Automatic annotation (TrEMBL):
Residues 33-194 form the HhH-GPD domain. This is DNA-3-methyladenine glycosylase III. GO terms for biological process: base-excision repair. The keyword Iron applies. It comes from Phorcysia thermohydrogeniphila. Pfam families: HhH-GPD. One of its GO terms (molecular function) is metal ion binding.
Length: 216
């Protein structure tokens, strides 16, 4: 069923080509800043960092705490996020940069990221998938809501790892898992923002024939 859901979403919305960023490092910064805030706020913060030529690991590490907080303020929770950014950049520099990290095995890398402050599973997997090109599926609240409504999950509060494993197992024989996982997550977000909202617009839903939840 998941493969069918993916195909229908892809045909309906087209390729999303996530993550919206100019460099893999910008992806990481965007992922760290987007926690608990809307993307437009992250864009303002990233634009501020670019304007001050600070969008590099070294730039963020050397930047004074107060200035960094001020620049990322639009993204909210700016004190906490400034610490998380500095922590992440420190890890990145001491590991020899993103290209070095890419050479590590997925599970080792994931465990290292999860040990960093401010990096939970969704954040770690977003960095792994969109910045480090590792074939891992990112689960978020939209994913759980949609899969629950489609009858794939028994509850919207399903365990993160269980959902991730269900999706990854469904595409285990695909040769292009990386591209599929990048697109599938982005398509789910798009679909849940446009149609399968909190109050779903089932009348105009491309997944109507597969759905058990339908509210018309
Ligand atoms: S039919 Fe309704 S509940 Fe089901 S996926 Fe579509 S919008 Fe969501």
């Amino acid at each position: 069923m998941l493969r069918e859901v993916y195909q229908i979403l892809l045909e309906s919305y087209g390729e999303q080509n996530w993550w919206p960023a100019e460099t893999p490092f910008e992806v990481c910064v965007g992922v760290l800043l987007t926690q608990n805030t809307a993307w437009r706020n992250v864009e303002k913060a990233i634009s501020n960092l670019k304007g001050h030529k600070l969008l590099t690991p070294e730039g963020i590490l050397e930047c004074q705490k107060e200035l960094l907080e001020e620049l990322i303020r639009p993204a909210g929770f700016y004190r906490q996020k400034a610490k998380y950014l500095k922590n992440f950049c420190s890890y990145l520099v001491s590991s020899g940069g993103l290209e070095n990290l890419k050479r590590k095995k997925l599970e080792n890398l994931r465990n290292e990221l999860l040990k960093l402050k401010g990096i939970g599973k969704e954040t770690a997997d977003s960095i792994l998938l969109y910045a480090l090109e590792k074939p891992v599926f990112v689960v978020d609240a939209y994913t759980k809501r949609l899969f629950y409504r489609l009858g794939i999950l028994k509850t919207e509060k399903e365990n993160y790892e269980k959902v991730r494993r269900i999706v990854e197992a469904s595409f285990s024989r695909e040769s292009d898992k990386l591209k599929i996982f990048k697109e599938f997550h982005a398509l789910i977000v798009e679909h849940c923002k446009a149609t399968c909202r909190k109050k779903p617009l089932c009348n105009s839903c491309c997944l109507l024939k597969l759905c058990r939840y339908v509210k018309i």
